[in-house]
Amino acid sequence: MKKTIDHIGVAVRNLEDTIQFYKNVLGAKLIDQYRSDAKGVESEIAIMEVDGARTELLAPTNNTTSPIARFIKQKGKGVHHIAYRVDDLDAALEELEQQGIRTLKDSLRINKHGRRLIYLNPADTEGTIIEYCDYPVKKDL
Fold first, then answer.
1. Which residues, other chains included, contact 11 with Cβ-Cβ below 8 Å and sequence gap of 6+?
2. 3-134: which CATH architecture?
3. CB 3.0 to 4.6 Å from 121: which of 80, 88, 99, 102, for a disulfide?
4. What was the pLDDT predicted at 138?
């Protein structure tokens, strides 16, 4: 199955400062900024675009339960995950299962932009947090 990079997720401590860096230094455009209080997300998210390539800036909104807060505490700020777009997430999940790759089933969700996503188990990816996603209902950003 074909996979392409959809975006890179970056854990940050100060979202506004990081947005300004991306705009002023990298020439990025702010595509969207929103807050997700969903269990297992609990972050404020800014989608930045540089020449068609997207980066999601992720700042924790709950320092006790947010996975981004936990990530920053353990590893510091920086690249959190790499998201790969697939044509059909259900077919990709079947392929992963056949390969013996586990997913974090409780991470399966649809975000506000219609992106359906799930994270692969980092124990099966040499420690890298990898997201698989598709866009079953195309929404423009």
1. 58, 59, 60, 68, 71, 72, 77, 78, 79, 80
2. Roll (3.10)
3. 102
4. 65
Res 110: pLDDT:
93
pTM above 0.85, yes or no: yes
Q: If you average pLDDT over residues 129-138, what whole number do you get?
A: 91
Residues forming beta bridges with residue 86, ordered by sequence position: 3
Q: What is the pLDDT of residue 32?
A: 97
Q: Which two tokens stand for residue 82?
A: 């790499």
Residues 6+ apart with CB under 8 A from 28: 22, 48, 49, 50, 55
At 141 the pLDDT is: 54
**Taking 70 as the threshold, does the pLDDT of residue 140 lie above it?**
no
From CA 140, how far away is CA 107, in angstroms rounded?
23
The rounded radius of gyration (Å) of the Cα atoms in the chain is 15
- Residue reference for tokens 């124990």: 123
